Amino acid sequence: MSKYRMHLLVCGGTGCKASDSDGIISNLEKHIKEHGLENEVQVVTTGCFGFCEKGPIVKVHPDNVFYIEVKPEDAEEIVKEHLVKGRVVNRLLYVEPTLQERVGQHKDMAFYKKQIRIALRNCGFISPEDINEYISVEGYQALGKVLTEMSPEEVIELVKKSGLRGRGGGGFPTGIKWEAARKTASEDKYIICNADEGDPGAFMDRSILEGDPHSVLEAMAIAGYATGAKEGFIYIRAEYPLAIHRLQIAITQAREFGLLGKDILGTGFDFDLDIRYGAGAFVCGEETALIHSIEGDRGEPTNKPPFPAQSGLWKKPTSVNNVETFANIPPIILKGAEWFSAIGTEKSKGTKVFALAGKVNNVGLVEVPMGITLREIIFDIGGGIKDDRKFKSVQTGGPSGGCLTEENLDTPIDYETLASIGSMMGSGGMIVMDEDDCMVNVAKFYLEFTVDESCGKCTPCRVGNKRLHEILTRITEGKGTMKDLEVLKELGEAIKDTALCGLGQTSPNPVLSTMKYFWDEYVEHVKDKKCRAGVCTSLLSYYIIAEKCIGCTACARVCPVKCIKGEVKKPHEIDQSKCIKCGACYTACKFKAIEKR
Amino acid sequence: MCPIKSLDELKALRDKLKTDIDVREAGEAEGNIKVIVGMATCGIAAGARETMLAMLEEINKLGIKNVTIVQSGCMGSCYAEPTVELRFPGQEPILYGNVNSEKGREIVTKHIKDGELVQNLIIGRPFETV
Asked: Which of A16, A302, A538, B110 is disulfide-compatible with A21, CB 3.0–4.6 A?
């Protein structure tokens, strides 16, 4: 048994840290010391538990009790009650909405019930800053196994048989990528880990690197052995300071333990790696652009072929794989291809991590088997729509994906089915929208992102997306015509067919998919000059309901253009010709006397 | 730390370190023997903490793996504190009373290790759990 009879796991992911999980840890340690328990109880900082909506999370073992929304002030009560007297602090337990009661163990929470954690297996279970903890959960055993028992060809065959596909968006079979790099003869080869996670709302790669960095290092060394590479790079965005910090610690520790460097585990195999920072350009997630960026050139994509596996970093064979893809490798090696391929659908094996965000109750990180339905993710795991509003749409795949509707909710999702209904798997961002979201505006938002992130090398992407954005802006301002809608569609299709890289080829997707599923909303904006969600400010007006207005003057005082007139204690009125539709009066009114229509 | 030289060394290190975190898996290991120490005010005053620590020490000394030790609040038998309840999977719980450190160790060696009840310490459970 452990040296410590109790372990307190405190989430140290970026989200929970922002809610002062560091303060919780220092307070817990302080009170544990005050009660003389420092030799009995261990406080461990872990990676993300996934249940970010209710963070910071504290888990107590061996009781297996799951506390949510813990504040530094709660530390004293947890120590006094739970650690000293064995009494669970009820008020910090999660209330399961389906049962309407407090549940102490995570296995009783609907959020965790349908999840299978492979890539996230160690997140929220071990300390990411201690290699000993990773070793104690079979860490580096997979590397040891391939180096001592398997030939590189056997490793590639196993990964191919497992059916693992790239988790960064493309869905290309990982084993085939490795095989291509293996087959290209060269003295030098490289392994690159793509940690340039850029989709708005997606944070699975960051969480894996923050919660279990060693699993990525181990998998990169395995990829090095399989392809014949001796050197690797992790290309990570500089905006992920915590992930970078933990990676640096992990790399230093792995070198000290002889698990990176020369003659690993006495087998004669050499592999080492280094970190390269991205400056925050979305297009650098595209593998050729990423490679140029590491080489010190502009982060611009180039035509494929040649594929990086033939001519990549410094013109040498290179395999570029995503963080989540790597995190799947060690369990596949240890448990076998059959175990992995038994999970998922016919063409998409294993699990996928989704970052659930938007108007859903349980915002967080979930790992689910391929083939699960959107309904299960949004309503069972995600706990349904916030404030009991009505579900309208879900956007998958980030700015390259599309918006799906109610009728797609029961489709089992994998790479193929998502593509067939006009969206894509992408890196796994999932943004849920309700009836208060305007679909034209959503399409505009994503285009704004791609216009901003286009590298400008090819005309369809540089000019085409800009034009799409201008048309959408016109429509949301009530100046659109039916001709605009035709152009929008035609231009969108043309960009898809002619752009140079994945960014441009997919950037019209949000527009095209919303036009397909929400055509009537576009027409409403153009013909009736109406935005049913009340989002497009140019299309709506503010009115004061005379019966509800008590004449408190609150609205008149906040109006920046002084267009609200009226006597004290008598109903006021808005001068529509002067109103700039800023909404200040709407927020200021305490009597719900102002309405948008 | 000097570098690990072989897979066998790595495996040995894993086996050694594994015990450091097995507490984190104990809560979900259904086959574990559960030892519940009453740690309300009455239990603590009667020395339940010392009992628990002694039992932990004995368990570690004997290298017993499949045990989860947890605390609970008052079990109602304040006259017989410290109290320790043993739950073997699929069996009726056994409640021991007046368990000092020495008797705690005896329960570990006899009941947990050899499966033999420590008859003179058993007290009746004062309640039915619904």
From this structure: A16
Are A207 and A52 contacting, i.e. CB atoms less than 8 angstroms apart? Answer: no
Summarised one tens digit per residue, pLDDT across range B47-71 is 888 999 999 889 888 888 888 888 8
pTM: 0.88
Q: Tell me how close the Cα of A536 comes to any Cα of chain B, in angstroms.
A: 51
Count of domains observed in chain B: 1
**Whether residue A183 is found in the same domain as residue A284:** yes
Longest CA–CA span in chain A (Å) reads 88
What residues make up the domain containing B57?
Answer: 29-121
CB A7 within 8 A of CB A32: no
Find tokens 């009125």 and name the residue.
Answer: A573
Residue type, A418: L
CATH number at residue B106: 3.40.30.10
Its ipTM equals 0.83
User: Hey, are the CB atoms on A5 and B73 less than 8 Å from each other?
Assistant: no
Residues of A in contact with B37 (CB under 8 A): 86
Give the HSE-up count for residue B85: Cα atoms under 13 Å, Cβ half-sphere.
Answer: 20
* Per-residue pLDDT tens over the stretch A438-453: 999 999 999 999 999 9
- Asked if residue A286 and residue A179 are part of one domain, the reply reads yes
Please give the tally of structural domains in chain A. 5
Query: Residue A45: which domain range?
Result: 6-112
Q: What would the pLDDT profile of A6-42 be if each residue is shown by its tens digit?
A: 999 999 999 999 999 999 999 999 999 999 898 889 9
Residue B84 lies in a domain: yes
Strand order in the sheet with A190-195: A261-264, A269-278, A231-237, A190-195, A318-322
**Same-domain pairing of A419 and A460:** no
B61 close contact with A: CB closer than 8 A: no
Q: Which residues of A touch B69 (CB under 8 A)?
A: 5, 62
Q: State whether residue A3 sits within 8 Å of chain B by CB.
A: yes
Neighbours of A180 (CB within 10 A): 17
